[in-house]
Specification:
The structure is a homotetramer of 434-residue chains.
Chain A lengths: L1 H7 L2 H8 L3 H9 L8 H5 L3 H16 L30 E17 L2 E8 L5 H14 L3 E12 L2 E3 L3 H13 L1 H9 L6 E10 L2 E9 L6 H18 L4 E4 L12 H6 L2 E10 L1 H6 L5 H18 L5 E2 L3 H12 L6 H4 L2 E8 L2 E11 L11 H10 L11 H27 L2 H9 L6
Parallel strand pairs in A: 9-10
Antiparallel strand pairs in A: 1-2, 3-6, 3-8, 4-6, 4-7, 5-6, 8-11, 10-11
Chain lengths: 434, 434, 434, 434
């Protein structure tokens, strides 16, 4: 696929394209001399023009509209730094959707204040998280800890015999250092931590777990796995890699393996909310929230057959922070698994969250886009941490857990006080709405 | 919380604030005369100014920076239609993050072409989906069907005795029409379809399922539940509503109940990919993909203990389309549950997806923001469908399923052909990256 | 397979075999004139002889032993009513294992006393259940309710097109009465209640749920499904039944569908344990048990990724009663799913269990064997209930739930009081044991 | 509870009781001078008499019957070795239920023949397993491997602060050897292998995994945990053990943790079934079984939301072998989790099972009862293996996996050939049945 682009885009051609009119270029796309998806590369570095031309083609050829104003005219694309996007973050670009960003907090966390930027279109979410942060701050702040760290990738390989399948499993135990060396030869930061094997027939599903510095790490680990499998193949030649990702990873799908083994950062956080704060700020009682937590977050989720969904709305906060900071929003699926625990300690309320698979990075992917990176800077954890590699991504994970705790506190208090309905109705709905 | 805003914002005050300088207003926020979160209401309709002032406060008081340029200076906020956001979609606004939008397709689906707008920062995702669409189109397009429809909400109530708990369950069966009438008195479009009860101690978890027109429907159903519970309380007076949402719903958490019972729209889709297309466009063989689907999407996910995650990367496509069209990205958690089935039929390949809980709306929430609504218009399903209420939201769900199928096809083919690594490496990584 | 037996066992042959010596018959088995598994039929009605001869063959030909006494000499087989077993409950018979039966209770349940026979080899289990029953009785007994009833079976069928697969799903909704009539034409007692369809590719998984009288009902429903599918095939001729059981049932496997939809009998039970009883009989406090229930049965099971395992040891009690009463012990897998809820009400303790899939019968299978049937008689619910068909099997389910509650109460109290270790150590272990 | 027995049973008393009439003793039970459950100890070693007297009391006082023959008269109790039961395996003894034992196989496994004793009342089960064994033997037998071994127990402890909870987790990593030494000081055979911690609030759930020799090992590990926690408490004094078993173990409940981490023995097994055998013995085709395995054991179970239930009927075989050999039948819940994989290799069929949590012992519990032990002897793995501790229990696990494979093969072939219904109907049903 990419080869054809390469052919179409020799530098001579690029020169000549710049001098052609938009209409001429559109004709070349129609006649397949330029690929529709190849416009950016054909017109580089004038990405605005490439996008403008694509929009024109979409408007005329793909999605014609009878409306006075074509929908695309409402999608902004100008004054944006497209060279950070092209070839890295998006293809067939039409423009961008603006997602509103609100700020909750700052939250007093591990002894210092952190801002909580959230990109969302759900009314009340930022306000609610903000209220939770305030209640936590009034009670002295919260604490977090990172219990485990490791991005995972699970290739699935196949061999020719039962004995060889067993041999693959044993090799990972007996020659771990050899595979580790191969893996780490591909990366400056990555450190292979473990390989967990599961057999099904003559397939072996091999879950690699690795420290990946400040990157979320999926690409780093994929490269490392590829190399390690090469070494394994030298010893067990019949191995065929069916896929570098065999879903035992598990990426972007609900799974117990991430809930139990962790993926990315495994974080816990807690805060003790003073009785007074519960009653005066959150307008309910400690006993009511403790009881509701059992009824809703434990029993309700248990009746629903949930694995890892023992919380009120962790995904709301995770999704909003992920979009604001350029994380991968599809990873909200597993990053938002969370058990919220609420207990009475003395007269006060102990609140905590257990989040075993927060997948975040301070570099790579969407974190490199200017606005998203700015939000990481606002949180104090953008880019690679030169002194302590990985510390920035760990801090993002901690902040996410802290923010989730704010969201849990506020929503649980809202439910306990009985004003779920009113809050949403006020903030999110127009009288004329359906 | 909202009352204090009201007090602070009488119209007289607003007048006078407009004439004050930014610095004076900042002082009023510092002295708590104006609430930090109340700036938009205090300065309405000059939301740009409200946001500018908040940014100033964040820069000076909350997140001071020693850098030459403060991070917030990189976050855009001007030239945006904030009155669609304030009071509905976001609070404590700082600006917006632009999320790049690419277009995949159009996909030939149910006999007509549909565009697939995707907002993403993951390199290769749009290109991959586009390639999948092309392969499907070359094979004659795809078909979809909506098997079931119903947004759900599950209040948890408590009673004083075992007998009353049983009575609640029986009442929902025996007097369903009465509860339905109460529910539907609160809404023009909503139709209550069923109530499913589960008991735990003297709690009853009542899962309401309702048709909600073109809205995703969470607020509509919450209001209806509230009313129905009021009627129930007339007959079983000891009922106490512990929460209008008791997690048996289940919203934004992984759960088997949604996988098995459905939530939102339950959609299936299929396409038959010609042998030639598999080999020439996708560069692999039918047998290889069929086999890989078993190894990865069935066995791998089964070994991982997944409920509903029997797919390659449905969440990628769902998240990208949800962000592009203003859906709730936290609902990607359950909306992306999907079983991808791949079988050989004759010499060709039968591809299908089973997606029981796609939660989407054509009105409400983020779908009302201009750019997001434009993307729905591009897909031909924005706003309430006057002729056939619900048809627009159903169409969104179908398009999502169709797009997921494109993504599955392309990625599975990529895995089967062994170029996962190379595709990601080329598109997503800078040579200098970690 | 069975045909060869038929051939080997014409009545003339049987006559002649009776007059042959054991050694001659052994020779005929060795020379394959009589099938090893056909001995009972060959020598009927002298089953003792058939078994004795088989034991001889096993001892000499299959499992010779150098020990002075062959292991089989320790397995009893005489003085047993084998005609109830042959052709119905077991094949290739060697004898029987005696499983010790203890009695717990009687338990005061729904206003009358019921005995709890338990067949077990786990020390302390009967004593513990007995203690739980005593505590419940001292507090006034317990209450049960059956919320739902229906054995399930889910054939998987395949069709030739997407449209036909959809048609299968729609047919089940639109023509339910037609399928119901076909189903019920095969059975005196069975009543089809619902059909729930799920699609995967061009397969439809159809979960039939039916009332099955006093039988556990698997065979009854299988026969009914077969007939209903025949009728369906008349309308959608391309249907092929891949299997009468496609695992969406789900039988004898852990599954969320049974937990959420129920299978067999869905029962809840509760008891209020007086504060005094908790303290004096169970030697702990209400607060301690309530707290432990959250820590262990909710949080612990949630961390473990359990679907339906929110209890202390329901399976112990279920297995013991199933073996005692001739139920299918493989169904303990799903019959033991249970959520144990413990709350404080006033000063007392509210204990309850939610058990959605208790699969039991009062007739059929092992319930027809004399000792097992005697245990059902002891419980007052053996055989078909002539007046109210199904009432006996419902009562078994209620008693199982009541017994589980006794077991939960006692074990939870034991844990809360800290003597798990000591109880097991005393009862179950020899000083010389490993 | 046990203390009162002790008081009632001084040796003097025992003397005198022996000389009393049954009626006198019954009076003493009625007047609570002898506890109902204390009869065995009161009359030791005349256990027959104790049981006879208890039966009398049950017949007259607890479960009087108007029938001509009391149900208990049908429950055998004489001629049984009660001293192996009393104080170890059962309390409140009434007698025993005989469970019919059939033999399947022998199965050619790992190069030698093993008999498969099964205790069951389900018609066709032994015959079906036998048929599977025959097909495997005709194809050259099967292979097994044990991938992992470790019984688990997860105490839940609580501490006074977040920092201490973290400290507990860290201590298990940093001072594992210290805890291991403490654990192993309590046992001759047990070897602590790992401790896996999960936090929820200020609770830590600590999953200990240990080699337990030839014992199933629950008691051994409980004792070891208790000791290790004692050592931990010396370093983190605020620790309170809420329970020695906090369900993160997980024992006798469905759970993902056992499916993913294993419990007891993790075994895989495979056999290649020749095309000819599939067609002539099993009466179906390789392609049909391969396809059905995907439809039923993968897709059907996936649609059902199963964790670990990707098989046809593993629990049937596991339950039957567990009852025959004195294993704990409540552990069938997790011991029967199994993924059955069926693939085509060349023209033949590759069959395999993945069973990560087979919990079995060759000593202890019901394995010490004469008949059950005899069945272990028949399999060649009774009692502690002196030369290689643990080898006997490992062999039991391998045989269970092999037998499960036989059962899977036969049932899948039966389904594929379409005769599920007929087989069950013939074997299990009386014409007059319901």
């Amino acid at each position: 696929m990419r080869r054809s682009i390469a052919l179409a885009c020799s530098s001579a051609k690029i020169m000549s394209l710049a001098s052609k009119s938009d209409e001429e270029i559109i004709q070349q796309v129609r006649s397949k001399k330029i690929a529709f998806y190849g416009l950016e590369q054909a017109l580089a570095p004038d990405y605005d023009r490439a996008i403008r031309i694509r929009r024109e083609i979409v408007k005329t050829d793909m999605c014609p509209s009878t409306a006075s104003k074509h929908p695309l005219d409402t999608l902004p694309y100008q004054n944006y730094n497209w060279e950070r996007v092209v070839g890295q973050c998006c293809e067939n670009i039409l423009g961008y959707v603006p997602v509103p960003v609100g700020i909750a907090g700052p939250l007093m966390m591990d002894g210092k204040e952190v801002a909580l930027p959230m990109a969302t279109t759900e009314g009340a979410l930022v306000a609610s998280t903000h209220r939770g942060a305030r209640a936590i701050n009034l009670s002295g702040g919260c604490r977090t800890a990172l219990l485990k760290e490791g991005m995972t990738r699970a290739p699935v390989v196949e061999v020719d015999s039962f004995e060889e399948a067993i041999a693959v499993c044993r090799f990972c135990e007996d020659n771990f250092e050899m595979l580790k060396a191969a893996f780490e030869s591909t990366t400056r930061f990555g450190k292979l931590r473990s390989i967990k094997c599961a057999m099904a027939g003559r397939e072996v599903h091999m879950r690699f777990s690795a420290f990946t510095g400040d990157a979320m790490g999926m690409n780093m680990i994929t490269k490392g796995c590829d190399k390690a499998l090469g070494v394994l193949k030298e010893h067990i030649p019949s191995i065929r890699v069916l896929s570098l990702s065999g879903n035992f990873c598990t990426d972007k799908k609900p799974s117990a393996v991430n809930w139990i083994e962790g993926r990315g950062k495994s974080v816990v956080a807690e805060a003790v909310i003073k009785k007074d704060v519960v009653e005066k700020v959150l307008k309910c009682t400690v006993d009511n929230i403790v009881k509701l937590n059992v009824s809703k977050n434990l029993r309700g989720s248990a009746l629903a057959g949930s694995i890892g969904g023992f919380n009120a709305h962790a995904a709301n906060v995770v999704a909003a922070m992920y979009i604001a900071t350029g994380q991968d929003p599809a990873q909200v699926v597993e990053s938002s698994t969370c058990m919220t625990s609420i207990d009475k300690v003395g007269e006060d309320m102990l609140l905590s969250v257990t989040m075993p698979s927060i997948e975040v990075g301070a570099v790579g992917g969407g974190t490199g886009l200017p606005s998203q990176r700015a939000m990481l800077e606002l949180m104090g954890c953008a880019g690679a941490n030169a002194e302590s590699p990985g510390e920035n991504s760990r801090q993002i994970a901690r902040v996410v857990a802290g923010a989730v705790m704010c969201g849990e506190l506020s929503l649980m208090a809202g439910h306990a006080a009985g004003h779920l309905l009113s809050a949403h109705m006020k903030l999110n709905r127009k009288p004329s709405g359906p």
